Amino acid sequence: xxxxxxxxxxxxxxxxxxxxxxxGLAFFYGGMTRAKSVLNMMMMSFVAIITVSITxxxxxxxxxxxxxPMSWLNNFVGxxxxxxxxxxxxxxxxxxxTGMPSxxxxxxxxTFAIIxxxxxxxxxxxxxxxxxxxxxxxxxxTLVYFPVAHWVWGTGWLNTLGIEDFAxxxxxxxxxxxxxxxxxxxxxxxxxxxxxPMRPHNLxxxxxxxxxxxxxxxxxxxxxxxxVDGTAALAxxxxxxxxxxxxxxxxxxxxxxxxxxTTLGVASGAVAGLVxxxxxxxxxxxxxxxxxGLLAGVACAYAVGLKYKFDYDDSLDVVGVHMVGGLVxxxxxxxLARYPFLEQQNEGLFYGGGFTQLGLQVLGPVAxxxxxxxxxxxxxKIIDKVMGFRIPAEEEVTGVDITTHxxxxxxxxxxxxxxxxxxxxSVAPAAKKVDA
Length: 436
Hints:
Number of helices: 17
Radius of gyration: 23 Å
Largest sheet: 2 strands, antiparallel
Keywords: Ammonia transport, Cell membrane, Membrane, Transmembrane, Transmembrane helix, Transport
InterPro entries: Ammonium/urea_transptr (IPR029020), Ammonium_transpt (IPR001905), Ammonium_transpt_CS (IPR018047), NH4_transpt_AmtB-like_dom (IPR024041)
Subunit structure: Homotrimer.
Strand order of the largest sheet: 1-2
Family: Belongs to the ammonia transporter channel (TC 1.A.11.2) family.
Number of strands: 2
CATH class: Mainly Alpha
Low-confidence stretches: 415-436
CATH topology: Ammonium transporter fold
Strand content: under 5%
Function: Involved in the uptake of ammonium/ammonia (NH(4)(+)/NH(3)).
């Protein structure tokens, strides 16, 4: 099939937008940590770009989108038809009628795998060995992300049953949220948790990161249509409106509960809305997107407090925002799905679809969440036994940036000046050393 230049140009753009989300996540997470671990937190996102990119090209795409020659096994994992992507290089375009090069589709899907792995890191801020994290990214992508993506977006069992996940509410966010919970439990709580203040050290970075995530998410959601059409436009608009509604709902909860509407709240609320609309963005009307956003903003604003009730240290609220937000969006689709531009067999309960799709929208998140939690727990336990997953207590107190990377995010030790000329031409003495 001849290459469609319009679709190809859009998918190149969407792929770049989704890749930008991972550096955006690095800013978002980095600002939420304490100053002594900001660089390590950001490095955890950047190293995911390295490791997942390589594993995806070698075998990740193949395990996700190939058909396994053993039909019974194909329900759970793909085969090695596209090992090394050479077959995609030799195939000019996908055979699905979109007219895009096969490599563009693969690159687009790669960016989803990257950010899913990076999302997990927020649960273990301040206390993970960098080498252990690097190994974890490879093993987790191989044993969890690639199979789950095959279940839902490949030819696996959930896809066969008819689950809907337009852009990754289940594959990305519930998957990462469940893994984050398991990893937080294996590594344990930070030194001084609930006894010392562990507030975000730089809310400016948090807002910058949230803005980049919001911007990149249009590629994430609208790009998942893999075409330039009405559904892509619907996904684009729904992404915007649900995010705005969720951010507003979170601020309202804060104001009513705490008396203050905060910058951390608006950033977290926006991300919650982005997460929740992801599975449904191409399948619901704009009014329904507002409902989903409002539900997500309220639910996630309260869900982030679950870690105090159940005593687990999810450092940057990955569980409360991504797992809960993804669940809100996935289940809401079972009620509100209308498919205005698509012909689908099962619409939502409110549109006469009965309980069939609703049941699938509950089954998918539960199955993925349980699988991700259990396998992540096993992976983390093995890594912990083999090489240790957590840094020593004294290094944690000192700060993982300086002990692991020999760097600091902010050089505040001295202030230097060679002299300042005053208005009358005299030179003021140089500034003295100031200890931070």
